[in-house]
User: Which sequence fits this backbone?
C-alpha cells in the first residue's frame, strides 16, 4: 500500500460506529477504516484526572521566568500537544480495509468530503485561534489553567490535522 492515502469522506451517526473513507492517489484503491469507540471508563478517568489537575493548578503560583523561557515552554508544550492529538486520532482509527465502491460512489464520497473539508478547515482555524487566545490569557494573567486549556485545544487541533493535508486540498481543488 502506498503512503499517499488521503481521507475523502467520513461519517458518524448516533448509536453507530463511524468510519472514514480513504483513497490511494497512485493506485486509486479505496479503503474504509472504522472508528474505535472510547470506553466509558477511560472517559471518566480522563475527566476526573483533568478536574483534579485543574484544582491543583489553581493553587500553584509561577515564579517569574524570563519571557524567552516562557515562550520556549509554550511553543514546546503546544508542539507536544499537537503531536499527542495526532497520535490519539490515529489510535482511534481502525485498520484499513479495502472496499470496492463503484466509480459514481467514489465521486459522491469526494463531493461530500469536499464540503466536510471546508468545515474541518474552519473548525481547525477556530481551534487554533482559541488556543492562541488562551496562551495570551496565560501570558497576561500567569494562571496555569489557561495554559492547560490551551494545550488541550492544541491537542484537539492536532487530532484534526491528520485529515487536513495538501493532497486532500489538491484533490478537491483540481476536481472543479
Assistant:
Amino acid at each position: 500500500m502506498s503512503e499517499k492515502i488521503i481521507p475523502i469522506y467520513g461519517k458518524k451517526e448516533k448509536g453507530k460506529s463511524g468510519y472514514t473513507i480513504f483513497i490511494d492517489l497512485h493506485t486509486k484503491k479505496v479503503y474504509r477504516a472504522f472508528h474505535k469507540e472510547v470506553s466509558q471508563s477511560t472517559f471518566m478517568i480522563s475527566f476526573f484526572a483533568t478536574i483534579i489537575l485543574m484544582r491543583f493548578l489553581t493553587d500553584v503560583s509561577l515564579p517569574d521566568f524570563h519571557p524567552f523561557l516562557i515562550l520556549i515552554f509554550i511553543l514546546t508544550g503546544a508542539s507536544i500537544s499537537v503531536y499527542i492529538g495526532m497520535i490519539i486520532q490515529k489510535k482511534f482509527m481502525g485498520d484499513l480495509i479495502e472496499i470496492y465502491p463503484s466509480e459514481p460512489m467514489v465521486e459522491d464520497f469526494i463531493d461530500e468530503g469536499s464540503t466536510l473539508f471546508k468545515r474541518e478547515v474552519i473548525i481547525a482555524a477556530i481551534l487554533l485561534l482559541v488556543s492562541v487566545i488562551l496562551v495570551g490569557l496565560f501570558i497576561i494573567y500567569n494562571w496555569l489553567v489557561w495554559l492547560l486549556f490551551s494545550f488541550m485545544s492544541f491537542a484537539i487541533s492536532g487530532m484534526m490535522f491528520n485529515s487536513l493535508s495538501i493532497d486532500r486540498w489538491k484533490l478537491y481543488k483540481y476536481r472543479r
